[in-house]
Design a protein that fits this description.
By secondary structure, the protein is α/β, with parallel strands linked by helices. It has 10 helices and 6 strands. α4 links the parallel β1 and β2. The longest helix has 30 residues.
Length: 292
């Protein structure tokens, strides 16, 4: 399991357990099914490496010290937690592929389902973000990967509060400067019914919540799409765009990294290359700029 590097302890668990790397490697391989053969090889390697009973006693001492260290500093073994927030009029199932990849890489994942069409941004922000935080261990580093509206909810929440042990934030196709689609369609019958009160707040006019939010002061990486799924909607957007948001309007002051991909708004979060970018930013703070 991936371990957090942000702990309250002076020494990392990796450093403390370095003398036991042979034992740890053996245990990991044994869990993968090599079983008795590995155990036999490990014992042989130990006899050749140690050679004396005194060295054996030293390794036993180190093992006891490591256990004591971890008991005193459990945060060293707390897996990072990734909170996934879907977009407007979507559900958590739209983020399932993303969740699966992060789980395979050893992260704890909170794939949040929230009623995006029922409330305004002000209410949804607390509802969605706090629901995700509740699923993460208190001592873990909390990262976010969001789609569309989900990114605005994180920005709104952090504009008005703090998240202890906040990690990095990846925003996929976020309307950080609003969307002209809302400006042109808000008065069309059925628009509010489909998109809810939060949808009406994502334009570029005086009612725009994104335009009222300030620069980000935490690590944010933004992935924008440049392939439209709806040429009719794209007529209202500055090109290039993803069918809902222009590439330019996804940007926010203070972002750390930015990349454009050939995908459309509704499915950007499921594209393998986008998932690769999200994992890369969460792990390193940078996207994979040489990815196809």
């Amino acid at each position: 399991m991936r371990r957090s590097g942000r702990t309250g302890c002076r020494f990392s668990a990796t450093v403390v357990l370095a003398p036991l790397r042979v034992s740890v490697a053996a245990l990991a391989d044994q869990r993968q099914g090599e079983g008795w053969c590995l155990k036999h090889r490990w014992r042989t390697a130990q006899r050749e490496r140690i050679g004396t009973q005194e060295s054996v006693r030293n390794d036993h001492f180190l093992a006891l010290f490591a256990v004591s260290f971890l008991a005193a500093c459990p945060a060293a073994w707390a897996a990072d937690c990734v909170i996934l927030l879907h977009g407007l009029a979507r559900t958590s199932s739209s983020m399932d592929k993303m969740a699966e990849v992060f789980e395979e890489r050893g992260y704890l994942v909170a794939n949040v389902d929230y009623p995006s069409r029922k409330f305004r941004v002000e209410e949804l922000a607390a509802l969605a973000v706090e629901s995700g935080l509740a699923k993460c261990p208190s001592e873990s580093v909390k990262h976010f990967v969001t789609h569309s509206l989900g990114g605005i909810l994180v920005r709104y929440y952090l504009e008005h509060g703090k998240i202890p042990s906040l990690g990095r934030v990846v925003m996929l196709a976020p309307p950080n400067q609003g969307s002209e689609i809302v400006d042109n369609y808000r008065n069309i019958p059925g628009f509010e019914m489909i998109n809810g009160p939060a949808g009406l707040q994502l334009g570029t006019d005086e009612a725009s919540i994104p335009l009222k939010l300030g620069p980000v002061n935490y690590e944010v990486g933004i992935v924008a799409g440049r392939e439209t799924f709806n040429p009719i909607l794209s007529q209202f957007l500055p090109n290039p765009d993803d069918g809902k948001v222009s590439v330019e309007n996804t940007k926010v002051e203070g972002m750390k990294d930015f990349i454009v991909v050939p995908h459309s708004h509704p499915f950007i979060m499921q594209a393998p290359v986008v998932i690769e970018h999200a994992v890369s930013f969460i792990e390193s703070g940078w996207f994979v700029h040489d990815a196809p």
